[in-house]
Specification:
151 residues, 7% helix, nine-stranded antiparallel β-sheet, elongated, two-stranded antiparallel sheet, mainly beta
């Protein structure tokens, strides 16, 4: 009986891990309200790292993570005589949690929310017009994916 108790303790213990992350956020279009012929398309690439504590129970685990991301936001304008392409740094602190299910060793399916607090918020405009787009100060992402786990 004590042997089974030891196995149960090992399965429910939390463990720490480090995650390296990369994201691409697809382009979104913004339009000047008073000049609808002028538009901008904005996308974002980021790299980041997070430290996680991950309690688990059998094939299920519940990682809680905190970290940072940094990257480049790109804006491209159209509808003007000389279309432009601009880049600016973007950075944020992130906190997230998830529920993961690992049906086989070294592979897991996961889903969960992520809170984002921006540290660098790029702003884009066309020539002398007002701001067309500015990255938000905070956000909530709902994420899901497949995770490959290295021993």
């Amino acid at each position: 009986v004590s042997g089974l108790g030891d196995v149960y303790k090992r399965q429910t213990q939390g463990r720490f891990r480090l995650e390296l992350r990369a994201h691409y956020f697809v382009s979104q279009r913004e339009v000047y309200p008073l000049r609808p012929e002028i538009t901008g398309d904005f996308d974002l690439w980021t790299l980041g790292a997070a430290s996680c504590w991950e309690p688990s129970q059998g094939s299920w685990s519940f990682p809680l993570c905190g970290g940072a991301e940094a990257g480049v936001m790109r804006g491209r304008t159209s509808g003007v005589r000389e279309p432009g392409d601009a880049r600016a740094p973007w950075a944020a602190f992130v906190v997230d949690g998830a529920v993961t299910y690992s049906p086989i060793a070294h592979l897991a399916l996961w889903a969960g929310p992520q809170g984002v607090l921006a540290a660098a918020r790029p702003r884009f405009h066309v020539r002398d017009l007002e701001t067309l787009f500015r990255a938000g100060p905070a956000g909530l992402r709902l994420r899901f994916g497949v995770e490959v786990r290295f021993p």
